[in-house]
Design a protein that fits this description.
Number of strands: 16
Number of helices: 25
Strand content: 15-25%
Structural class: alpha+beta
Number of domains: 3
Helix content: 25-40%
Largest sheet: 9 strands, mixed
Distance between the termini: 38 Å
Strand order of the largest sheet: 5-4-2-1-6-3-7-8-9
Length: 611
């Protein structure tokens, strides 16, 4: 997109001195609701301790959804979301003054303060992102336009009396008031579905804040500590089954504001809090933590930003090994990151990251061990490490790279060969929609399990482990959360009824007649979405079954590499292998079993050359 003359003049008149760590900031002018947003722009140096500005954290939104604001008496095109934010921030209410402590407000907003068309300037400013957000007086998070319901929730959460009543709820044994239930619904079903929670860039911005971040929605504003306090104290509907209907009543009241997107997409508020707390203690995060906790379930417009949007949180030792240059292709950046992970962080990459990463089994011009961070699946808050064991098996003892840095060498054993791989749907809206597919999957799995293992097959000593789990356990079981799918009922009975194999028991019949059908299957739906969707159901030549990466194909090799927490699927390619991804294989997920059966196994250690 060509730069307009106005923007060109604006940036030409305000050049940045990189040596002085200069940035541009907006000074927001007061105005009426219906008047255009007007600002002046100036440059400041981050070396100047007296510099005072608020850094904005927001979602740009649709690139075509733009409007104009006035900057230095020039009409400048900006994302509509930014204009709406600035329009609301210029309301100098008592709460704004107390939290932001600025009048007039001086604001750093990347869409305007960086010349986005100048790739060199963009790269230089992104390299300063940690300084910008940690130097800001406040990090102001814009959740979007307000509604009567979000205004209601913010007003109550800002009330000391309301927060005290919520805290008292856990120890007083009283039932929650309707207003407490209503705010719970608004927070989780409206506010937590705003796009801000999904975007990758803003997570770094939140974590980098020196003072506690401030959240804005419409003209309302609240400190993060108050928001978090309420979230931790909200009543949970499952703790009050006799009044569970009140949550549904509140959902119906706010139905016009509800977002129909999956509530699990994005980052959980508690996870965000823990990550920020960890960063504040050390002023840097381990590379594997950043990839594992912040990259997960995220979205970014520019695929390079899946890495660049996290650089400000890394230890300098890791950061300096990644080239920040927007002229590089995304996979070139990913190769630098992949090499760093495999070379310098081998143990944690194998034990924690590998099962969550996405790879190209086919040749895309890059080594197959290079993760494609832009195509990571979004599985939601309830992805409880669903295809990982609780601990790794053994350890890698050698340098993972030969002299040729394009070949990754891992030690391990070959378990089996994939003989069937069925793709699962990427989404479903209700349990009835997915049931026909589940029935087909169950038939496939049961046939494979019943197939005898040939006498000389290496997994013959493991024959009994094929029957260790039921079908529903294979599709939903997690090493982190293995509780009942249907509290108070027999899981297998409910599953059998769902598969139309058994008649309805009186308990389930009562639950369904009592309009608890959706609630009854809510946990099953959640666990299926976390483990099953967007992957492939696989069976092996020996009749083992499981769920794994969506790239798995018939003929791929099921391996267990030392140091990993899940079987790794590799694809034979000439004299080497290509990395496909990880899989959960029922009966073969317990590392202790491999030690127990080690002497019985007809398996030999193999060096896998992965190109």
């Amino acid at each position: 997109m060509a730069l307009s003359d106005n923007k060109r003049n604006l940036y030409d008149d305000l050049p940045l001195n990189r040596q002085r760590r200069e940035v541009r900031v907006l000074v927001l002018c007061e105005g009426r609701d219906d008047s255009p947003v007007e600002c002046s722009m100036k440059t400041i140096s981050l070396f100047d301790g007296a510099a005072s500005f608020n850094a904005l954290s927001y979602v740009w939104g649709d690139a075509n959804d733009t409007t104009t604001i006035i900057v230095n008496q020039l009409l400048i095109t900006v994302p509509k979301s930014l204009a709406n934010c600035l329009q609301n921030l210029r309301h100098y209410t008592a709460s704004h003054t107390k939290l932001l402590n600025q009048n007039p407000q001086t604001i750093w907003a990347d869409a305007v303060c960086i010349n986005q068309q100048d790739l060199l300037e963009r790269s230089q400013q992104v390299q300063m992102m940690d300084d910008i957000y940690s130097s800001a007086r406040n990090v102001v998070i814009w959740l979007g336009e307000g509604t009567e319901y979000t205004d209601y929730a913010f007003d109550l959460m800002n009330s000391t009396a309301f927060r005290e009543r919520l805290k008292d709820l856990k120890i007083s044994n009283r039932r929650p008031f309707e207003e407490e239930i209503m705010v719970d619904v608004i927070f989780k079903q409206v506010l937590c579905k705003r796009k801000w929670w999904q975007r990758l860039w803003v997570r770094q911005e939140f974590v980098l804040a020196t003072k506690e971040p401030v959240f804005c929605c419409g003209c309302k504003i609240i400190a993060w500590s108050h928001l978090l306090s309420c979230f931790l104290s909200f009543p949970r509907s499952w703790n009050y089954p006799d009044i569970e209907h009140k949550w549904e009543d509140c959902r119906k009241k706010v139905t016009s504001s509800l977002d129909e997107s999956d509530a699990n997409i994005g980052i959980h508020p508690i996870a965000l809090h823990r990550i920020r707390k960890s960063f504040c203690e050390r002023r840097a995060l381990p590379f594997c933590d950043v990839i594992h906790y912040l990259l997960r379930n995220s979205a970014a417009t520019d695929p390079r930003d899946f890495i660049y949007g996290l650089l400000g949180l890394l230890d300098p030792q890791d950061r300096k090994q990644i080239t920040l240059d927007y002229e590089l292709a995304p996979m070139e950046i990913y190769q630098q990151v992949g090499y760093l992970l495999w070379k310098q962080h081998t143990e944690r990459t194998l034990s924690e990251l590998l099962p969550t990463l996405n790879f190209h089994g086919d040749d895309n011009g890059f080594p197959s061990w290079v993760p494609d961070f832009a195509s990571q699946s979004i599985r939601g808050w309830q992805d409880h490490r669903t295809i990982q064991a609780g601990k790794p098996w053994r350890k890698q003892t050698r340098n993972p790279f030969k002299l040729d840095q394009s070949i990754l060498v891992l030690q391990g054993i070959i378990l089996d060969i994939v003989d069937n791989a069925i793709p699962t749907p990427n989404k479903f809206s209700n349990i009835e929609e997915i049931v026909p597919f589940l029935r087909d999957v169950e038939e496939l799995i049961l046939k494979a399990i019943d197939r005898p293992i040939p006498p000389h097959h290496p997994l013959k000593p493991f024959s009994g482990l094929k029957h260790e789990e039921t079908v529903v356990q294979t599709l939903t079981k997690s090493t982190v959360d293995t509780g009942e799918l249907f509290p108070g009922l027999e899981d297998e009975e409910v599953w059998a009824r769902l598969m139309d194999r058994e008649s309805l028991s009186p308990e389930i019949a009562i639950a369904i007649r009592g309009c608890r059908y959706n609630g009854l299957f809510a946990r099953l739906s959640t666990m299926l979405k976390g483990k099953f969707l967007g992957r492939k159901v696989l069976t092996s030549e020996a009749g083992f079954v499981g769920i794994g990466a969506s790239q798995i194909e018939v003929g791929d090799v099921i391996t267990l590499v030392f140091g990993s927490t899940a079987p790794l699927i590799l694809r034979p390619c000439a004299e080497s292998y290509r990395m496909v991804g990880s899989a959960y294989v029922s009966g073969l997920m317990d590392p202790d079993l491999f030690n127990l059966y080690c002497e019985k196994l007809m398996l030999q250690e193999v060096s896998f050359n992965i190109s």
